[in-house]
Amino acid sequence: MPARADIKKILQFLFLGCFVTVLLPLSAWAEKMRVLTEPLAPVHFLQDGEIRGIATDIVRAIFDEVNLEPEFHIYPWNRAYEMVLQDKNCFIYTINRTTEREALFKWIGPILHKNVHLYKRSDRDDVVIESLEDVRKYTTAVILGHSLTTDFLDRGFLEGEELIITPHKKAQMQVFLKGRADLITGNQFTIFDALRAEGYTLDHVEPAFFVSAGSAYSLDLIFSPDCH
Fold it and tell me: CB neighbours of 71 closer than 8 A, spacing ≥ 6?
């Protein structure tokens, strides 16, 4: 988890942007706001009845800075995303900031940066990928509602053939480890914990294809424009 000093640096960065103008006026709200996320350790996850994680610590600290006490809830990603599109007084984290989503929300962040890869099992020397087009030769386990899943579908990847769409990270990892998929999406924050939860280590996988990195795929705390 980030040290207190690290969180302080992140908050200082946020204050230089839209943090004050967007969140500070919300401190006058009388009702509690709902903060939604998905089970994706170590970034955000449920443990002993409490939502914890690297990003969760940062988000809690952000709300503490403006004396707000939000209610945290955890759901499969697609459900959380649909809820934040429809409900007032709600936030969601962490989410990829994409062109398609840009106008749907007011964005606060970024709070984390990630490097996204497609991973293969380390014993699969037959899986060789040099371009995104090569990915079509294999089956990739993805998560319902994730931006990368949407991107694959928009590119014409076929569900059930080139993609196996799962509801959450645990199911995605199980599909991959059971050999039903050749590849799995992941980043430096999530791949280790997802493997460890199933009794595996990083030695069992290796990056097969680099997908993205940098601010275009940063993880942001956002809220619906309907929140007022």
Answer: 32, 33, 34, 35
